[in-house]
Amino acid sequence: QVQLVESGGGLVQPGGSLRLSCATSGFTFSSVAMSWYRQVSGKERELVAKIFSVGVIKKYADSVKGRFTISRDNGKNTLYLQMNSLKPEDTAVYYCSVNTGVLTYWGQGTQVTVSS
Question: Which terminus of the chain is more exposed, N or C, with fewer CB under 10 A?
Fold first, then answer.
């Protein structure tokens, strides 16, 4: 079955960095686009970044452009999100997601808190 397991969240000061990872299994990772979303309690889940299968085409939310970088290692079936210059408004639960063409799957999420 499809499994997505995020890691790397935590508490960081404003201006700091974190690297999120999403280990995957149960589908052909190299053939599909992967995404990172985030959600603040009481708000809708929003798309943060998306990377297509080859890894060349990437898309970012305007709020994270120039600060976040999405990448993937097709040999390790793992998705990454490098987050730099973090701001308090980046505080959220971050989820990785894949749409296999049949269903959309989500990980359990990892909490990122940006606070001094």
Answer: N
CB 8 within 8 A of CB 109: no
Report which of 35, 7, 3 is spatially closest to residue 109, judged by C-alpha positions.
Answer: 7
- Residue by residue, pLDDT tens for the chain (116 residues) are 999 999 999 999 999 999 999 999 999 999 999 999 999 999 999 999 999 987 789 999 999 999 999 999 999 999 999 999 999 999 999 999 999 888 999 999 999 999 99
Q: Which two tokens stand for residue 112?
A: 């990122």
- Lateral strand order in the sheet of 68-73: 3-7, 18-25, 78-83, 68-73
CA atoms within 13 A on the CB side of 12: 22
Identify the residue whose tokens are 């599909």: 32
d(CA 36, CA 101): 17
